[in-house]
Design a protein that fits this description.
The chain is of the alpha+beta class. It contains two helices and nine strands; from the N terminus they run αββαβββββββ.
């Protein structure tokens, strides 16, 4: 265990906090710090307490209570594949696929899922969320793509 001495505290103040404080003091006048989230004029900033309250309020308004990242593996070749989704709470009222994508192993090309090709029905990728599993199906050969999904839930 390291003992913190007065010399260490003074060094931390003189070489750490004090220079930062002096630098900030020169850049921002205390008269420009306001206790309101409704700042419409440039040059003014929200005080730390108000900013913290605003961030906490935004965090409380998230539309999902949780997310699960699911690695789907290789997209099937003219087939159907089922992948278990583990970790969804039993009391979740709503569950949905928030985002899904596939990445081509050779070129790195990324496509969103489900994928609909307007010129060919055989070049589509279907993705469906069932209770406890994701089903991905294709009518063409997509095996050179690997896929991932983010499953969200609301309690």
């Amino acid at each position: 265990m390291k003992i913190i001495t007065t010399n260490l505290l003074n060094r931390f103040w003189n070489h750490g906090i004090k220079p930062i404080k002096e630098e900030l003091t020169g850049k921002l006048s205390a008269s420009k710090v306001v206790e309101s989230p409704n700042i419409t004029e440039s040059g003014f900033v929200m005080d730390g307490k108000t900013a913290s309250e605003q961030i906490a309020e935004l965090n409380g308004k998230t539309y999902a209570d949780g997310y699960i990242f699911v690695e789907l593996g290789a997209v099937p070749n003219k087939n159907v594949k089922n992948i278990d989704v583990i970790g969804i709470p039993s009391n979740a009222k709503h569950v949905w696929i928030d985002a899904a994508w596939a990445k081509k192993s050779t070129s790195g090309l990324i496509i969103p899922l489900p994928y609909v090709d307007t010129t060919s029905t055989t070049d589509c990728i279907r993705i469906v969320l069932y209770t406890g599993r994701i089903q991905i199906s294709t009518a063409g050969d997509w095996s050179y793509y690997n896929a991932w999904a983010v499953v969200a839930y609301k309690l």
